[in-house]
Design a protein that fits this description.
Layout (H helix, E strand, L loop, with lengths): L5 H14 L6 H12 L7 E6 L5 E5 L11 H13 L7 E7 L5 H6 L1 H21 L9 E9 L5 E10 L1 E3 L5 E3 L8 H18 L4 H6 L3 H11 L6 E7 L2 H12 L9 E4 L4 E6 L7 E6 L1 H9 L10 E5 L6 H12 L12 H8 L15 E7 L6 H4 L4
Antiparallel strand pairs: 1-2, 1-13, 3-5, 3-8, 4-5, 4-12, 6-7, 9-10, 10-11
Helix pairs in contact: 1-2, 3-9, 5-6
């Protein structure tokens, strides 16, 4: 959907009523303003004129906010281009580490603290297993992506892990994973839970987590629930070569809580959107929610300011990555990657949407060229720019 449809339409149409009864944090207010103003006169833009027939068009700026459903395709493609240089010619495994819903209340109070503990527990678990001689005995290469939602926009916090099927040993040799197997899932689950709970306990000594867990009765009850059942770690089938890995990775890295395509109706008293009929499979059904409930659920997934939801570890970790990648390539006897080529907007549109962006749609002969600047507008401030 364009700027007059999808999530932005929900916020424009029902925003005033929602904001009359709800207070937003600074981070959520910023996301709201960005989505509502994206590709509209609110953000400004420029006028383009055909050099053959004189036809003009207005092109408005995008918000580039990571929560905006309209702004992820270009960001994803640029990110994947950089990752392409880091892929190794080995099988890759996809694992999912999920937090129990018993933690949802605490996540709502101190999301940054819980998300940091989650990343720490998952990365420490994978690093520990990879270092053990029984499994790989070396430094792994993996990336983690945080998702916080399920299909109905309820809170469902989990991390997707893309792990190379091997590790770099201390003597610079590549140790390959067993065919079709990386680590035992049940053992991963127990270690993951242990590391998360230990970090949660340690975090109670000071800061916002200490205040959020000050009620000792509630704290003991939470700990009992966290140990009452196994935690979910799900391992998917190993992936194929680098091209398949990139395509697969792109499904997760820049996904937002809900895409505009899933929103099928915005009415006075409900918002209708498509969800999967079952946990797996392609069948879909339509779910209807009151507008305020829909907005509440979407805002659950606005990340804390500056929080990095995609992180890299081991060989791909930022400290010494170039050296470690070069060692891994040498161990696998593969050449250095080609340099990154920066793709123009026109080339990007041609490849993704099969559109000749600059060609005049009126005469079909000329090309659109920028001829004037459109300044950001303050028209309809309370509506098109979201909350103050």
């Amino acid at each position: 959907m364009g700027p007059l449809g999808g999530l932005a339409e929900v916020l424009r149409r029902h925003g005033l009523r929602y904001l009359a009864t709800h207070d937003l944090s600074a981070a959520k207010a910023k996301v709201w303003r960005a989505i509502v103003g994206c590709r509209t006169a609110a953000l400004g833009g420029h006028v383009e004129t055909c050099d053959a027939c004189g036809t003009t068009r207005h092109v408005y700026h995008s918000c580039r906010n990571r929560h905006c459903p309209q702004c992820q395709t270009r960001a994803k493609e640029g990110w994947l281009a950089a990752r392409r240089r880091e892929l190794l010619p080995v099988p890759y495994f996809h694992l999912v580490f999920t937090l129990p819903h018993d933690l949802n209340g605490l996540i709502g109070i101190v999301p940054r603290a819980l998300y940091e503990i989650l990343f720490g527990a998952v990365s420490a678990t994978l690093t520990e297993f990879a270092a053990h001689p029984r499994w790989l005995g070396g430094t792994p290469a993996f990336s983690l992506v945080l998702h916080t939602w399920k299909q109905d926009l309820g809170r469902h916090v989990h991390v997707h892990a893309l792990v190379a099927g091997g590790a770099l040993s201390a003597v610079g040799e590549w140790v390959s994973a067993k065919r079709g197997f990386l680590f035992p899932v049940q053992a991963l689950s127990k270690v993951f839970r242990g590391k998360f709970v230990a970090a949660l306990k340690a975090g109670r000594t000071s800061g916002p987590l200490a205040a959020a867990t000050a009620d000792m009765g509630a704290w003991r009850l939470l700990l009992a629930r966290l140990h009452a059942h196994e935690w979910v770690v799900y391992a998917k089938q190993p992936l194929g070569g680098p091209a398949q890995v990139l395509e697969y990775l792109g499904r997760y890295t820049h996904r937002v809580a809900i895409s505009n395509e899933r929103i099928v109706g915005v009415a006075a008293h409900e918002v209708r959107f498509r969800v999967r009929a079952q946990a797996s499979g392609h069948a879909r059904r339509t779910l209807a929610l009151p507008p305020a409930t829909f907005i509440d659920r979407f805002l659950l997934h606005v990340l804390p300011k500056g929080f990095k939801r995609i992180r890299h570890y081991g060989i791909l970790g930022p400290a010494g990555k170039a050296v470690k990648l070069a060692q891994a390539r040498a161990a696998l006897s593969i050449p250095p990657p080609d340099p990154v080529v920066v793709e123009s907007v026109a080339a990007f549109m041609r490849r993704i949407d099969r559109v000749e962006w600059a060609r005049c749609t009126h005469c079909g002969q000329g090309a659109f060229l920028p001829t004037a600047t459109i300044a950001p507008t303050t028209t309809h401030v309370a509506f098109s720019r979201g909350p103050p």
